[in-house]
Amino acid sequence: MDVLFVCLGNICRSPLAAGVMRSLYKQMSIQGIIDSAGTANWNEGQRADPRAIAVARENGIDITSHRARQVCKEDFDRFQLIFAMDRDNATALRKLAPAGADERIRLLRGSGDIPDPYYSGDAAFRSTFQIIETCLNAIVHDL
Questions:
Q1: For the whole model, what pTM was predicted?
Q2: What average pLDDT is seen over the chain?
Q3: Active-site position among 12, 22, 116, 135
Q4: Disulfide: which of 2, 36, 77, 120 matches 14 by Cβ 3.0-4.6 Å?
């Protein structure tokens, strides 16, 4: 199952989610492409936020090779599941999606948003990581 995670700038939530999912895939011997992207292009080519890198590292996950990118039309063909971190990004994805791709776009947290820790401190990044990890543990067991 190929999965894309999408947030706004692709430097906090979506790289964390991709890192967690890669770790879960490895632990469970699941094959698939895992990637992340942003609906905005502000951070293209940048590394993940240092606080995201730190919280991932604290949890045994390395996201230092991440480079931000913007969602592109090809993503809707490439990925079977596209998880938005919040409703605003899900709306933006649906506007970009070609006909028939809507059913692949889902909120990672079901009906709720994954909080954006960018304007907060380290504790917010840890909390966001825990929420993402909890959501993905449930999702990967359903795959």
A1: 0.97
A2: 96
A3: 116
A4: 36
